[in-house]
């Protein structure tokens, strides 16, 4: 089981509270956010409590739905950032990059 630092736990809780506050500001019930995400209302409740077991994709999508910007709100800036990060990753030494594994499915 993954052990989280106190800083990570607090960050998850703060981010969950931010999502809850933004959802309430939009007068959006948990059930509506859950439906838009394709998850249960219990998952939204866990997300808003900062539960680390909630998938990061669900957390990010919930933030996007309620209007919390992630990295940037501008699609062009996000694409530029993605390109920059990919370029930086390509500059890493070969041993730091994850090798692509070819699967052999000839059983």
Describe the structure.
- It is a single chain.
- With 107 residues, this protein is mainly α.
- It is 60% helix and 0% strand.
- It is built from 5 helices and no strands.
- It has helices at 6-25, 30-37, 41-49, 56-66, 75-90.
- Helix 1 packs across helix 3, helix 1 runs parallel beside helix 4 and helix 2 crosses helix 3 (41-49).
- The chain starts with 5 loop residues before the first helix and ends in a 17-residue tail after the last helix.
In angstroms, what separates the terminal alpha carbons? 33 Å
Biggest sheet architecture: none
DSSP helix fraction: 55-70%
Shape: extended
SS-derived structural category: mainly alpha
- Could you tell me the radius of gyration in angstroms? 18 Å
Rounded mean pLDDT score: 88
Q: What is the number of helical segments per DSSP (H or I, 4+ residues)?
A: 5
Number of strands: 0
Beta-strand content = under 5%
- The poorly predicted ranges are none
Task: Classify the oligomer.
Answer: single chain
Order of helices and strands: HHHHH
């Amino acid at each position: 089981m993954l052990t989280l630092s106190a800083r990570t736990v607090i960050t998850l809780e703060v981010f969950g509270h931010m999502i809850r506050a933004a959802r309430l500001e939009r007068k959006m019930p948990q059930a509506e956010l859950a439906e838009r995400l394709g998850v249960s209302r219990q998952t939204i409740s866990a997300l808003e409590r900062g539960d680390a077991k909630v998938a990061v994709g669900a957390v990010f999508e919930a933030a996007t739905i309620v209007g919390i910007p992630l990295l940037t709100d501008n699609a062009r800036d996000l694409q530029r950032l993605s390109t920059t990060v990919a370029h930086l990753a390509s500059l890493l030494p070969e041993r730091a990059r994850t090798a692509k594994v070819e699967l052999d499915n000839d059983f």
